[in-house]
Amino acid sequence: MQYVSTREKSTIVSSAEAIVKGLSEDGGLFVPSEFPAISSKELEQMTDMEYSERAAFVLSKFLSDFTLEELNDYTKKAYSRFYGDDPCPLVAIDDKTYILELWHGPTCAFKDMALTLLPHLMVASRKKVGEKNKTLILVATSGDTGKAALEGFKDVEGCEIIVFYPSEGVSDMQKLQMQTQTGNNVYVCAIKGNFDDAQSAVKVIFNDENVKAQLLEQGYKLSSANSINWGRLVPQIAYYVSSYVDLLASNEIKMGEKINFCVPSGNFGNILAGYYAMRMGVPIGKLICASNKNRVLTDFFASGKYDTNREFYKTMSPSMDILISSNLERLLFEISGRDDKYVASLMNDLKTKGCYQIDFDKLKTNASNFEGGFSDEEMTMDTIEDFYDENDYLLDTHTAVAVGVSQAIKEENGDNTKTVIISTASPYKFPQDVYNALTGEFVDDSIKAADMLEEYTGMEIPEPLQGLQSRIVRFKDVIEKDKIKEAVLSCLKK
């Protein structure tokens, strides 16, 4: 399997090269040259597999530089770090609604599904392409990616990782997780601004030939652990396939029966993985893109216009507080018939004008499986409270957005298709807002709020989040967004 750039199809790399590079030199994102198929027979065979085996099988369809034996080794090691019997249990709420819990990993967020695995893929890919320089991984995070990437790459041979997060754009629990990160090859820094500012600043470095030359002099080449890196995105395809197989195995559906997915979306990578699963042949009906008050994706699917020239809101679902959804570029590539020049022009419009418009008829025709909706703050609060009262199930703020949107769309169109809601984080990542939603009381201290939420619900605080208050805060740096180059170069000299 080869990979091409969304902005220049003549750029062709292997799967290992795509992982090591992270981003194409033309600024585009790597996508598979074709979509591998998964058959009904293969889906049936997967019912007897453990999750790590299913993941390795799906990855083998895309990562032709690796043997199935190698991939099985990586997935077994990665998912052994998860607590519980199943890395991503599928919980039935009723006979039409299921929640796929993706937060049983070492950082209690869905990013663990990919970022426990990516270091294994990165180390192996470096060897396969003969890379002698160290890999410098730059990460912009809206909260969860940062901690998951730090935890995954800490003390990994041949790799250094630097994470930038918006100083006021993550939860207290997310910030504390990053600031207390251990490891000799990690660095964390806050940026004054929002996630889009952090993401744009990191992209500037990837496109700055002078900085890259200076890094090379020090023995480093850039890569990424954000979902712009194919090695980060491809493991996410696996849990869509696996959830369908789980429903088959439990006789909840029959082979070929379509199911819907509702996904809380910010940077668009998580729901894009569902799209790739559908293109492989997994019977998927609708992919419901759930946004919070920052509803740029909802508006895009309603009009074909992507417009960041709007007010930015800081919400109780901060990992979704994003106006520039980088992974949407991959979908645009497919919608346009893989027209790289067209995609490049759209991305230039986004950079220069803050918006772009695509043909709405083409969008509705070529992305007909997508539907958008959003939940404002009040609706999200109500969803957390009502869902707990009705189902004795505790939602985090992001999953609540998806649940609220899914319920609203079902009421609107009467669609009774079985729906899997992607749950992206433990409620204890956002204890203040969850506790407030349940009780009407806001607790200023996140650690205290977590303890009170545990007492109120009886749901135990996950082990990775216990004792955070006693860990040493290592990283307190805060910089202006235009000082990221200096920060990167200086931290490598320490």
User: Strand fraction band?
Assistant: 15-25%
What average pLDDT do the residues reach? 95
What does the overall shape look like? globular
What's the arrangement of strands in the largest beta sheet? 4-5-15-10-11-14
CATH architecture term of one domain: 3-Layer(aba) Sandwich
Ends distance? 40 Å
In which range does the helix fraction lie?
A: 40-55%
Reported for the largest beta sheet, the result is: 6 strands, mixed
Find the CATH topology of one domain.
Answer: Rossmann fold
Q: Quickly name the level 1 CATH class of one domain.
A: Alpha Beta
The number of helices is 21
The total strand number stands at 16
Structure description:
It is a single chain. The protein is an alpha/beta fold and 494 residues long. It has a domain at 90-106 and 231-462: Rossmann fold. It is built from 21 helices and 16 strands. The protein has helices at 15-21, 40-45, 51-62, 68-79, 112-115, 118-129, 144-153, 172-179, 195-206, 209-217, 230-249, 269-280, 296-303, 328-335, 340-353, 360-366, 377-391, 397-413, 431-439, 446-457, 484-492, and strands spanning 2-5, 12-14, 30-32, 90-92, 97-101, 134-140, 159-166, 186-192, 220-224, 259-264, 284-291, 305-307, 355-357, 370-374, 419-423, 478-480. Strand 1 (2-5) and strand 2 (12-14) form a beta hairpin. The chain is globular. The two termini are 40 Å apart.
List the helices and strands and how they pair.
Layout: E1 2-5, E2 12-14, H1 15-21, E3 30-32, H2 40-45, H3 51-62, H4 68-79, E4 90-92, E5 97-101, H5 112-115, H6 118-129, E6 134-140, H7 144-153, E7 159-166, H8 172-179, E8 186-192, H9 195-206, H10 209-217, E9 220-224, H11 230-249, E10 259-264, H12 269-280, E11 284-291, H13 296-303, E12 305-307, H14 328-335, H15 340-353, E13 355-357, H16 360-366, E14 370-374, H17 377-391, H18 397-413, E15 419-423, H19 431-439, H20 446-457, E16 478-480, H21 484-492
Parallel strand pairs: 5-15, 6-7, 6-9, 7-8, 8-16, 10-11, 10-15, 11-14
Antiparallel strand pairs: 1-2, 1-3, 4-5, 12-13
Helix pairs in contact: 1-6, 3-4, 3-11, 11-12, 17-18, 17-19, 19-20
